Amino acid sequence: MNDKKRCLQAAEELHQRFEFRYIRPEEGDQAAQIEQICFPPNEACTEKMMKDRAAAAPEMFLVAADRKQGVLAGFLCGLATDESRFRDEFFYDNTLYQPEGKNVILLGLDVLPEYRGQGLARELMHVYLQKEKERGRKVAVLTCLADKIPMYEKMGFTGHGLSKSTWGGVPWYEMSYVLND
Fold it and tell me: For 156, which DSSP code?
């Protein structure tokens, strides 16, 4: 079986096991708990920030819900904007959200440890980027730690070096993905 067929089969299996959909109002708590598990305290968004983000822009907050367990296994969230560079204020200032913005700033890709290594992060990203492409967005921008750069490169992102972000007091690298020219 070639790589493309293998990837399509893996994606199909993930869609059978997980429901990929936008967050529901009552799931803000779960998302906040996942964030606390996936990131160290200095990097994680607070419970209030996560709940506010889910409430302010649920259509920008894609979750993977385990169909059998009835819980969130992971999520990818962002905010639409006309800005093209990442800044830390996107993490906590939901007033920067522009529903018709031409770009999307990706704020968090979180997958619980027990669901890692199965391609779930990759599929969350694939589904999310496809939805944003269909909305006509131009570019997706994210920041990541140095050890995550190869993962995002495999997802099609291009690196731009050190970001201006100082979130959590650690160095972040900015990357982007062209959705529409």
Answer: T
d(CA 39, CA 43) in angstroms, rounded, equals: 6
Model confidence pLDDT, tens digit, residues 108-156? 999 999 999 999 999 999 999 999 999 999 999 999 999 999 999 999 9
- Give me the sheet containing 71-81, strands edge to edge: 18-22, 61-66, 71-81, 103-111, 139-144, 173-178, 158-162
Long-range contacts of 165-172 (CB under 8 A, 24+ apart): 165/86, 165/87, 165/88, 166/88, 167/43, 167/88, 167/91, 167/143, 168/40, 168/42, 168/43, 169/42, 170/42, 170/43, 170/145, 171/145, 171/146, 172/86, 172/143, 172/144, 172/145
CB atoms within 10 A of CB 132: 23
pTM of the model: 0.94
Measured distance CA(3)–CA(22) in Å, rounded:
29
The amino acid present at 19, given as its one-letter code, is E
